[in-house]
TrEMBL record:
<dbReference type="InterPro" id="IPR003593">
    <property type="entry name" value="AAA+_ATPase"/>
</dbReference>
<dbReference type="InterPro" id="IPR027417">
    <property type="entry name" value="P-loop_NTPase"/>
</dbReference>
<dbReference type="GO" id="GO:0016887">
    <property type="term" value="F:ATP hydrolysis activity"/>
</dbReference>
<dbReference type="GO" id="GO:0005524">
    <property type="term" value="F:ATP binding"/>
</dbReference>
<protein>
    <submittedName>
        <fullName>ATP-binding cassette domain-containing protein</fullName>
    </submittedName>
</protein>
<keyword id="KW-0067">ATP-binding</keyword>
<dbReference type="InterPro" id="IPR050107">
    <property type="entry name" value="ABC_carbohydrate_import_ATPase"/>
</dbReference>
<dbReference type="InterPro" id="IPR003439">
    <property type="entry name" value="ABC_transporter-like_ATP-bd"/>
</dbReference>
<dbReference type="Pfam" id="PF00005">
    <property type="entry name" value="ABC_tran"/>
</dbReference>
<feature type="domain" description="ABC transporter">
    <location>
        <begin position="4"/>
        <end position="243"/>
    </location>
</feature>
<keyword id="KW-0547">Nucleotide-binding</keyword>
Length: 246
């Protein structure tokens, strides 16, 4: 049984048909690369899976159970977390504070409630250790590299132990060394049984860590193939329209 199953997902904005009957499955421990040119429908599909808005038509299932998301919290409660391209981190806070942002641990002393920094630092440190990241809980985000920032964003998703992590262009605008760090984080998610959907324009990244690649063009899925059964040249042709379907 697939962890995530999309069946005939459509999305229209007035007269604009952004998605046209998308079918997609993702299994636990599997990474699927989602590729396509600008305007192909990748972001729209990710936002539907993440609960930002509902599809116009089609069905979404988690572990065989049909679900309906009306807000991001609905997706989170069903084990789906998303790491946006801009990461949505607070530069003036520590790594641990960003991991727990909006979900802070608290203690009570009589009528007084206060933040439990000790346990937040401890748990954040455990998460960074699980991800094999050198990021430290007390480091300020504004002093971090792009790879370390990604580690903070991914650790934040791990806080709720999600079944599926959506990643939107995680290796855009960072150095080669930092790209390697992020790809290692994705491999670590797979090893621990998490499913990943990776949206990326970077062909080498998709072929390095993904098990399958799905290609969207003008709101339709034109390919869904195992990495070993395709090539960067074929995927490029599918993205541009030089190859119609595969």
């Amino acid at each position: 049984m697939s962890l995530l199953e999309l069946d005939g997902i459509t999305k229209s904005f007035g007269a604009i048909h952004a998605l046209q009957g998308i079918d997609l499955t993702v299994a636990a421990g599997e990474a699927v690369g989602l590729m396509g040119d600008n305007g192909a429908g990748k972001s729209t599909l990710m936002k539907i899976i993440a609960g930002n808005f509902p599809p116009t038509g089609g069905r979404l299932r988690i572990e065989g159970q049909e679900v309906h998301f009306h807000k991001p919290l609905d997706a989170r409660e069903n084990g789906i977390e998303i790491v946006y391209q801009d990461l949505a981190l607070c530069d003036n806070l520590t790594a641990a504070a960003n991991v727990f942002l909006g979900r802070e641990l608290k203690k009570s002393f009589g009528p007084i409630r206060y933040l439990d920094y000790r346990n937040m630092y401890r748990r954040a440190g455990e998460l960074f250790g699980e991800l094999k990241s050198e990021t430290r809980p007390r480091d300020l985000v504004r002093q971090m590299s792009g790879g370390q920032r990604q580690a903070v964003a991914i650790a934040r998703t791990r806080l709720s132990d999600p079944k599926l992590v959506l990643m939107d262009e995680p290796t855009a605008a960072i150095s080669v060394r930092q790209v390697a760090e992020v790809l290692a984080l994705i491999e670590r998610l797979k090893e621990t049984g998490h499913a990943v959907i990776l949206v990326s324009h970077r062909m080498p990244d998709v072929f390095a860590v993904c098990d399958r690649v799905a290609v969207l063009r003008r709101g339709a899925k034109v390919a869904d193939k195992h990495i070993g059964e395709t090539s960067p040249e074929e995927v490029t042709g599918l993205i541009t329209g030089a190859i119609e379907h595969a």
